[in-house]
Recover the amino acids of this structure.
């Protein structure tokens, strides 16, 4: 059981939780994730760690209400307990001095991007962060991202904040202006797919962080299976980060939609 120390609302459906997990806080690195379960029979939900305070023994998770499990978690409050939090899982982000790096975060994807931005800056990179969301209220962690970025470009679909347009337009404006050595993209699968198509055109190596369905998180069940460069990989043990130019996003999107019907039925039952 892990206690929720604080809960902050970012927007109508996006919350930041600070959770007591001293061992995870000590061991985690950028890129690591945890698997969270709410209730004994709860679904296991992978969430990338957005930050940690080893002195306080806490980790930070940013959660968006999208399905039943994330909604259950978002209904918990400060002082409540999460049934279990397992981690840190996965491989840490490969950080080095690349040169100029563009970090593109879409929606809640900015949360797992934050520790990567911080680590890239600490390694001496010039970091240009592109934060994107449908509207102003969906741009999160801007101040934290600014602290470790040389420049921040905000893109909103409706133009309510920053520039009007898609995340890819923000990335391309940088590429056309200066030499970019590396790109990281984290957000919805469709967003990462289009970021990768763009950077492939310009020959810029791009890492993505995938958030597939997961069950055991140990490479045994196969739920998180994806194809990378024609080979089968497991997001939980081989990832969550991969060379985005090699990921078969179309197959991944199809697998992620496999339980849509069941999810909708469960949600209806939950809200009755
Ligand atoms: Fe089971 Fe990855 S979650 S193999």
């Amino acid at each position: 059981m892990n206690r929720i120390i604080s809960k902050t609302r970012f927007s109508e459906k996006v919350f930041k939780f600070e959770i007591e997990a001293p061992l995870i806080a000590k061991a985690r690195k950028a890129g690591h994730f945890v698997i969270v379960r709410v209730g004994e029979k709860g679904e296991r939900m992978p969430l990338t760690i957005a930050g940690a305070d080893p002195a306080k023994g806490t980790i930070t998770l940013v959660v968006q209400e999208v399905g039943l499990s994330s909604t259950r978690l978002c209904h918990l409050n400060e002082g409540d307990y999460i049934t279990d939090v397992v981690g840190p899982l996965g491989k840490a982000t490969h950080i080095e001095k690349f040169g100029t790096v563009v970090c593109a975060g879409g929606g809640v994807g900015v949360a797992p991007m934050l520790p990567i931005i911080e680590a890239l800056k600490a390694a001496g990179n010039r970091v240009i962060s592109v934060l994107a969301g449908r509207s102003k209220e969906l741009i999160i962690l801007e101040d934290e991202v600014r602290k470790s970025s040389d420049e921040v470009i905000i893109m909103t679909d409706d133009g309510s904040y920053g520039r009007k347009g898609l995340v890819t337009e923000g990335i391309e404006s940088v590429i056309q202006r200066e030499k970019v050595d590396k790109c990281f993209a984290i957000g919805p699968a469709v967003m990462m797919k289009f970021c990768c198509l763009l950077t492939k055109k310009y020959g810029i190596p791009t890492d993505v962080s995938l958030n597939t369905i997961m069950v055991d998180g140990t490479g045994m069940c196969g739920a998180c299976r994806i194809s990378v460069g024609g080979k089968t990989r497991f997001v939980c043990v081989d990832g969550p980060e991969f060379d985005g130019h090699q990921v078969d996003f179309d197959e991944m999107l199809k697998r992620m939609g496999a339980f849509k019907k069941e999810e909708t039925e469960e949600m209806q039952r939950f809200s009755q």
The longest helix spans residues 110-122. The pocket of FE2/S2 (inorganic) cluster is lined by residues 214-217, 219-224, 234, 236 (CB under 6 Å). The longest strand covers residues 2-11. The two ends are 28 Å apart (CA to CA).
